[in-house]
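re: that chain from earlier
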Amino acid sequence: MNDSSRKKIKARVNRIAGQIGGVGKMIDDDRYCLEILDQISATRSALDALGVELLTSHLESCVISGGDENQHECAQPRTQDELLEEVRTSLRRFLK
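^ sequence. v structure.
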């Protein structure tokens, strides 16, 4: 993951943390249940967007990069079948 991606992902994580904190405050403030559910829905959407960003970054830096300068240091050389299995595993985990 490059520095630009890392900064974007970290910013998303911070916003999501703020949203979750907001849900807790809404509960403390005894806000209307539908308002809390709307905030939970927005938080879930933000988590999904974060997941897509991370999945894309993983595919770019760990699966597709194949030894170029964008390759993550933990990525290992793999056969095409192993790479395909890595994609399947990544999608399975994300779509749970």
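The domain at 3-95 is CATH 1.20.58.1000 (Methane Monooxygenase Hydroxylase; Chain G, domain 1).
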